[in-house]
Design brief:
disordered C terminus, mainly alpha
Length: about 325
């Protein structure tokens, strides 16, 4: 019953401000995720232009990038939660400190991961593939991937922190601009026009991540944290007012339904007792027999009862069993 109203009895689509805010936040995230996958698939197409071995090597390299991204996303998501919480509580200075520490921790973790990755350069290719040609290409690209991991980590952490400021459209626009304005043009130039090997394609990815990290870091450093905190608190307050109004509407509707059900139960009980008029008459006769004497101080029950009314009620009970006896009604 505690969560029944929220799960069953409420329709969130009727809350237009909440639905608008939900779409406003989720749409940039969906577009950004789609474009990120599209970017890597297009880079795979560019690698296929160089040859089947290069295409297979780039596909295997994608799994290595996924491992790095999972580590980076963990720091970015954790920092995003802390920054958004501090901004919502009206603590812009702590939000700024949390964002800077998240950037530093993400950078430090990326350096550690890259160092471990470089130390396993001669071991990992043998676990990823059995083809000697692909293994040689992977060993050639691993140092550049380790460098790109550092820039990618900083850029993704900054993207999450800018999103914590409720500026997901801005973060997505910067990442998309760097991807389709720097990474893909450079990748197409190095592979299709100049016919370079996978080093040129990897350099294009690193250049795009470097520019993304630089722009998003600039946005964070130039942010007006006090103003952002006030805007977020106003939005939270407005959402709270909307939720309270919707909950009050639900409670009023539920109370009206309960009152109507209680009224139906009272009508049914009146019918079983022979109607409300008969019940009132019997209770009035009983109250008339108990009087308050001496200004309400001494109470005395009348020893005389209306024998005829009692006999009439007993006769009614014998004729109709649905009618309750006067003793039960009085008690």
């Amino acid at each position: 019953e505690k969560y029944e109203n929220g799960l069953i009895r409420s329709l969130a689509l009727r809350n237009r401000p909440l639905l608008k805010e939900f779409l406003k936040t989720s749409a940039p995230l969906a577009v950004g995720s789609m474009l990120a996958y599209a970017e890597w698939e297009l880079l795979t197409v560019f690698a296929a232009v160089l040859g089947p071995a290069e295409a297979a090597t780039w596909a295997v390299l994608g799994f290595v990038w996924d491992v790095f991204e999972s580590t980076t996303e963990a720091f970015g998501d954790a920092g995003e939660v802390r920054v958004s919480y501090q901004l919502g509580k009206g603590r812009p200075q702590l939000a700024r400190l949390s964002s800077y520490k998240s950037m530093f921790m993400g950078l430090a973790m990326s350096i550690v991961m890259s160092t471990i990755f470089l130390s396993l350069t001669n071991v990992l290719p043998e676990f990823l593939t059995t083809d000697q040609t692909i293994q040689d290409m992977l060993r050639m690209l691993f140092p550049m991937i380790a460098l790109g991991n550092v820039t990618m980590s900083v850029g993704m952490v900054c993207w999450a922190l800018v999103g914590a400021q409720l500026r997901y459209p801005l973060a997505t626009a910067i990442a998309t601009l760097c991807s389709f304005g720097i990474t893909l043009p450079l990748g197409a130039t190095f592979t299709i026009v100049l016919n370079y090997d996978l080093k040129g394609l990897t350099f294009a990815v690193i250049a795009g991540y470097v520019m993304t990290a630089m722009l998003l870091s600039t946005v964070l450093l130039m942010s007006d944290w006090e103003k952002l905190s006030e805007r977020i608190r106003e939005k939270v307050l407005a959402d709270t007012v909307d939720e309270d109004s919707s909950s009050s509407d639900d409670s009023s509707s539920s109370s009206s339904s309960s009152s109507s059900s209680e009224g139906e139960e009272d009508d049914l009980q009146d019918k079983q007792l022979g109607g409300p008029l008969a019940t009132k008459v019997v209770l009035a006769d009983f109250d008339a027999n108990s009087k308050m004497e001496d200004g309400g101080i001494t109470h005395k029950k009348s020893e005389e009862t209306d024998v005829s009314s009692v006999k009439a009620m007993h006769q009614a009970v014998q004729e109709d069993p649905n009618v309750s006896s006067p003793d039960r009604i009085i008690n």
